[in-house]
Design brief:
Layout lengths: L17 H20 L5 H13 L7 H4 L3 H8 L3 E2 L2 E2 L8 H21 L2 E2 L3 H10 L3 H21 L2 E14 L4 E12 L8 E14 L2 E9 L2
Helix pairs in contact: 1-7, 6-7
């Protein structure tokens, strides 16, 4: 699995046409299957992409800043005078908004943890787990790609692991949510001589409510 080098990950999240959504979903799933087959085959491109991911804006160095508790930060500095300015505590989001955001982050993290963990000898269970958390164009394209993913994984005897390190909501409302997650894991296959090689990913997941839960309607890799 490699990130989508053609996307910056910083563009606003806006509804696209059905054709563009299908194309984007297909591209992400194809990239995923290719990486399962051969990590080294994309050598130079992969090195460039991972260099950008690891170094962009000191992302990993500043991960702790992203997950810092904003309420504790605000409380500790409320009323603190800096020069002629005074920092005042901002009003907290409503309980409903906080619960909605927490639910979106939980749903996105759950999908990412399922999507990034796959074994060549258990692809069927993997595919079912992804389908259970997917909807719309993303699920349709994943269904169409399952057979190819299975063949690629089994041919390479690929085992990939991944775990979400942090997640943050970009936008959340009653009808949709966009969440960014960062993960760390490994991949091992014939190309790596079955030695686990580190793989870190950032994913953007777009969620939609369905049957009382939030399901992933789009998933893409971002740098």
């Amino acid at each position: 699995m490699e990130v989508d080098a053609g996307r910056s990950g910083g563009a606003p999240v806006t509804p696209g046409s059905p054709a563009s959504e299908r194309t984007r979903a297909r591209l992400n799933i194809v990239l995923y299957a290719v990486a399962l087959l051969c990590v080294a085959a994309i050598g130079l491109l992969g090195s460039r992409i991972w260099g950008e991911v690891d170094d962009a804006d000191g992302f990993w160095d500043h991960a702790g800043d992203v997950v810092r508790d904003p309420e504790a930060e605000t409380a500790s500095r409320a009323g603190e005078k800096i020069g002629d300015a005074r920092i005042e505590a901002l009003p907290l989001a409503s309980t409903e908004e906080q619960e909605r955001t927490a639910a979106a982050i939980d749903a996105a993290s759950k999908m990412a943890n399922v999507f990034l963990n796959v074994r060549y000898d258990d692809v069927e269970a993997y595919a079912e787990a992804v389908r259970a958390l997917a909807t719309g164009a993303f699920r349709d394209q994943f269904d169409q790609s399952t057979e190819g993913i299975t063949k690629v994984a089994q041919r390479a005897k690929s085992v990939q692991t991944g775990e979400v390190l942090w997640a943050g909501a970009v936008a959340v409302d009653e009808d949709s949510a966009t969440v960014i997650v960062a993960s760390a894991g490994t991949v091992a296959n014939r190309t790596t001589k079955f030695k686990p090689v580190p793989r870190n990913y950032r994913l953007q997941l777009d969620l939609a409510p369905q049957d009382g839960q939030r399901l992933s309607r789009d998933l893409k890799f971002v740098a």
